[in-house]
Amino acid sequence: MLMDSIHHKLMSKSKAADAFTFVELLVVIATLGVLAMMLLPALAKTGPNTQAVQCLNNLRQIQHGWLIYSTDNNDRIIPTVGQGPLQVSLLPNPYTDPGNPENQWIYGDVSQPVAAANVNLLKLGLIFPYIPNVAVFKCPADPRTVFFGQTVPPGGVNAPTVRSISMNGYMSPIVDNIQTSTAPLNSNYRIFRKQSDLAVIGSANCWVMLDENPYSINDGWFCANPSPTASSWIDMPAAYHNNSCGLSFALSGMMMPPLVVEASSTRRTRMRSCSGLNFAMGATPFKVG
User: Fold this and answer.
1) How far is the C-alpha of 151 from the C-alpha of 179, rounded, in Å?
2) Is the pTM of this model over 0.90?
3) Is the dihedral of CA 261, 262, 263, 266 positive or negative?
């Protein structure tokens, strides 16, 4: 009995020595809280980084289709248009008929609710046979919806828009008896009609596709004024990948340069510089003369 009593007392003391005191428990909880606070910012970036990878993969596929189109069409760069009489937002439309000289790389003004969620406008574009997947045209981080920044009308469905990507407006813009001008493109700068035209600047130095800002995206081209005297943006790059946008280059390259972002009083995001690729003031397109 005596041995059992001594053994019981020793075991009780051992258990008491092994247990946490209240103060020690509070210290452990506080330490875990500090570690969680340190990890949360890193974990929060995991989602956007995953979306950025997907966005670059989308650009890679579109850029690949852009190159193959030229291979199949005597070196011709796939045509594009901006605002004007060739803009297609409603179907059917003769400009989308196969073989029509007004055929474009993509159709639809996503700033217009009638076109913003119409996947058939994507499917009729000249590039779609080379990338037959509507999902690649919409960045997963793009917040734009059909009634973006507007009041949804009764019965309206505020669905995501179908496209985030725009093409360099200086790449084969259509000019003919219907679309008589490339304005607001700067006419003092070179227009590229064939892949061979890019030799003057180098394919690796000429961007082709990019994520356009949800506040400026409308037609299928991205319009910028490269003049050194330009003081404002026409179209704007996106900034939803940690203040970056995706870019593709004519040599099949992709990158995601950082952007300097400032929010104006109208809540539109405006970019002041782009890691040396200054769209409003930069070296592309190549100036004539």
Assistant:
1) 33
2) no
3) negative
